[in-house]
Amino acid sequence: MTNRTISIPTAAPVSSFRCIACGVIRDNVSHDFRCTDCGDLLEIFYPAWHSEQMATNAPGFKALWQQRKTSRRAIDESGVWRFRELLPALRDWDQAVTLREGNTPLYNLPACARIAGVKQLYAKHQGMNPTGSFKDTGMTVAASFALQEGFRWVACASTGNTSASMAAYAARSAMRSLVVIPEGKVSWAKLSQALDYGALTCELRTDFDGCMRVLNEVVKQWPVCLLNSVNPYRIEGQKTGAIELLEQFDGQVPDHIIVPGGNLGNCSALGKALLELLDLGLITRTPKVSVIQAEGANTLLRSVREHGGKKLIPMQAQTAATAIRIGSPASWKKAVRVLQATGGTVEQASEIEIAQSKAEIGTDGIGCEPASAVTLAGLKKLVKQEFVKQDDIVVLILTGHLLKDPEFTLKFHRGDLFKGTEYEQQAAALRLHQRARVTLEPTADAVVKALEQAEKSTPPN
Ligand code: F0G
Question: Quick check: 102 and 82 in contact, CB under 8 A?
Answer without folding.
Answer: yes
